[in-house]
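Comment thread on ticket #2218

A.B. wrote:
> Attaching the input chain for the structure job we discussed in standup.
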Amino acid sequence: MKIFHALLATILLAGITGCSKKEYFEPENTHSASVAITSTGKKAASVMRDGVTFTDGTYISKRGMGSVKLPEGFHFVNESSTYILAADDTGKIRVYRKNGTLLFEEKLDLPLISAGIRGDRIFFVQQNNVFGIYSISSRKIVISAKVGRAYAIDTRIANPIMVGSLMIVPTLDGKLLIINPADPRGARGMAIGNQYNLNNVIFLSKIGGTIIAATPRKLVSAAPGAMNKFEAPIADVKIAGGKVYALTGNGEVVKLTPSLKVLARKKFQYAQFAAIAVTGGKVYALDRSGALIVMDTSLKKYKIYDIGSVDDFVFVAGNRLYKDDELVDLSRLGYE
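C.D. wrote:
> Ran it. Output below, let me know if you need it in another format.
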């Protein structure tokens, strides 16, 4: 993923140098969060949407600490109830059983960018926006096709998900491939963005049979016969309790219905949000300066803690927030 990290750095630098003055979120009152913070002593080697791999080969996923120690150069990509998938920057992939046993290592022609596992098959996207299906049992690619041009992309690349009996695969050019695993060659495409740059899907989840997706510029809700949009620069998204919670680049925390009707919103002037968590009846919004806003789910009550600026990465797994070399137990922080 080094090429994409470098690209993102270039884009961010261009944005900074093109702006004469940058304002920062500076809350008047913050509280200490030291009771909730412990040191992990780890440094990130790779940061992906669904996992962080550390320099010692350990990793965290949305389910918590991983069960496999990966060799140097490999990073966690995704997992199912049966398999764990890892990859490196040269095109190699490794498939492990959930008990930690290495099943095999394979070399693909291009590096893997995102992937989802359904039964025996890996549905993946490679560099250059190549979509493919890999059979674990036969250890070969059974389908491969370039699906469109992708220019500059946002590195928060979403992995494929299952919605009912269908596999939904986000491509790098702002489309969702809707695939019936029993007949993958009959895949349909659904465009959710029409920009040339920074148009890829950075968040993908579901509420029942409704697909919730986001690009850096918008949220999209798609269900049979209906598509709704919420247009705003998107920093992060979380699904909880049948609702959609979004952080925007305008410093807003927004609560929406599955059809993207706004239920509540709260603006924090100049906030540059990095991550959101919704757990234990609370909403947590982290600003890159280190201000962690803890809110009730109606977005009316809130309290702000100082957990230190985000220098490297931030990742949320359940009620745990990993930031740089620290772990924050969110359950120990409230809004009252």
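A.B. wrote:
> Thanks. Noting for the ticket: Residues 2-17 form the longest helix (16 residues).
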